[in-house]
Design goal:
- The chain contains twelve helices and 21 strands.
- It has two domains: about 250 residues, Rossmann fold (3-Layer(aba) Sandwich), CATH 3.40.50; about 150 residues, no CATH class.
- Helices cover about 35% and strands about 25% of the residues.
- Helix 5 links the parallel strand 12 and strand 13.
- Strands 1, 2, 3, 4, 5, 6, 7, 10, 11, 12, 13 and 14 form a twelve-stranded mixed beta sheet that branches. The chain has a seven-stranded mixed beta sheet with strand order 16-15-18-19-20-17-21.
- The two termini are about 25 Å apart.
- By secondary structure, the protein is α/β, with parallel strands linked by helices.
- The chain is elongated, with a radius of gyration of 29 Å.
- The longest helix has 23 residues.
- It comes from Friedmanniomyces endolithicus.
- One of its GO terms (cellular component) is cytosol.
- Keywords: Antiviral defense, Nucleotide-binding.
- This is Nucleoside phosphorylase domain-containing protein.
């Protein structure tokens, strides 16, 4: 069964969030993210979003899935709302904020350099007060940080990359030099860049207990110096985005080369269900067969009991297209049994009794418990997790060249095997 767009995005460990849609394409191109998914195809995501999906291959053949997307509008509040919603729905494990910024020329930042950082402050947080009989807004310059290991040495090895503080505002400014100077005089902090989203991004990721996402920094190309010349040359803007993409690609490779990013599915509903099903059914049935406990079979056509050929294995059949409610009704199972000439079977005795079907030398079960996954937000994916976790259990593994006593079959495999027997 093909992955849904939602599952395709959730399988990506890294999310790269830009400030606005215009920034996505250039950065995605530099990263080699060619597959495109529209928000209209993704459950729970605003229709206006666009996602560019890519993969990076590392030593040992490991592949890191990632996507590049953006807020629908730039600015602190729109970015915080859109990115928070995307993190909640898509559940990336790691996140980076990328785009463009206005650089601080006095600190040696030049056009088309790249500023990277893990700390920012907002110009919008503070209070209004009367100062010399004039109502004045006084920013509190609270710093938001989400420290990233390795970011400082990474920046120090590249001539066009600077590590430092960002300051975020909700409006486009042409007085960035004055803002930089005021901050330096007020709180003696040297800020390298002015932009519109970094503090919101770092604030979101700082609540990792709730978002479960780890920030890997903010990387932004310098497209202007925040003065009256801002925006006069669109080629500078595009080149700054390209430089951002190049540095971002190096940073991702540097960062993930020594990192484990594969997600654990231990807490998924499908995994929990598989553990219970394995313990309560598969394990008990295989133990009963191994111990030589009786197996009683009722012939479907003759409606009489007779000694069964001694089963040697247990086959667990998954539903067509991983449709979790396919086995929900007993009538459906009886119809399947009639179609494929399956016999009702009882395995074990007393409290160890379990019911199944019998086909030749195999016991067959159709796990009706999968119906319990209907209310999850990705039932087909949870069914896949259920299968993977079963196949990892001891009774589903070959031992010393012998066939495993239990096996999971897809619906197609079951039909094929049944037709040939």
């Amino acid at each position: 069964m093909a992955e849904t767009p939602l599952r395709r995005l959730r399988s990506c460990a890294l999310a790269i969030f830009c400030g606005k849609p215009e920034e996505i394409t250039i950065i995605a191109t530099e990263l080699g993210a060619r597959e495109r998914i529209s928000g209209t195809a993704v459950d729970g995501v605003d229709n206006g979003h666009i996602f560019h999906i890519g993969k990076m291959e590392f030593v040992g053949g490991k592949k890191l899935g990632f996507y590049v997307t953006s807020s629908l509008r730039q600015g602190l509040v729109p970015f915080a709302i859109a990115t928070g919603a995307l993190i909640s729905v898509l559940r990336p494990r790691f996140a980076i904020h990328a785009g463009v910024c206005a650089g601080n020329k006095k600190q040696g930042v030049r056009l088309m350099d790249v500023v990277c950082g893990d700390s920012a402050m907002s110009l919008e947080d503070g209070k209004w007060a009367l100062k010399n009989d004039t109502l004045t807004f006084l920013p509190d310059y609270e710093t938001v940080s989400s420290p990233v290991a390795g970011l400082i040495p990474f920046a120090s090895t590249r001539d066009n990359v600077h590590y430092g503080f960002y300051v975020s505002g909700s409006a486009v400014r042409e007085d960035a030099p004055a803002i930089f100077e005021k901050i330096e005089l007020t709180i003696t902090r040297k800020v390298l860049a002015l932009e519109m989203e970094a503090s919101a991004f770092l604030k979101l990721c700082s609540h990792s207990k709730h978002t479960n996402v780890l920030a890997l920094g903010v990387l932004k190309g310098v497209s202007d110096l925040g003065d009256e010349d801002r925006g006069r040359d669109p080629e500078v803007y595009e080149e700054a985005l390209r430089e951002t993409g190049k540095v971002l690609k190096d940073w991702v490779r540097n960062c993930f080369s020594s990192m484990t990013w594969e997600p654990s599915e231990e807490a998924e509903p499908g995994a929990k269900l598989a553990r219970t099903y394995y313990t309560n059914f598969v394990q008990r049935v295989v133990d009963a067969l191994s111990a030589g406990l009786p197996v009683t079979v009722e012939a479907v056509q003759e409606n009489s009991t007779a000694p069964a050929p001694r089963p040697t294995a247990v086959k667990i059949v998954m539903p067509p297209d991983d449709n979790v409610d396919y086995f929900a009704e007993q009538g459906q199972l009886e119809e399947i049994a009639g179609t494929y000439a399956l016999q009702n079977a009882v395995v074990g005795q007393k409290s160890f009794k379990r019911t199944a079907y019998c086909k030749g030398e195999n016991l067959v079960d159709f796990p009706r418990c999968l119906n319990g996954l209907c209310d999850t937000d990705e039932p087909a994916y949870q069914a896949l997790v259920f299968r993977r976790f079963l196949e990892a259990r001891p009774y589903f593994r070959r031992i010393e060249g012998r066939d495993a006593p239990a096996q999971v079959l897809t619906w197609g495999e079951f039909v094929q095997v049944s037709a040939g027997s």
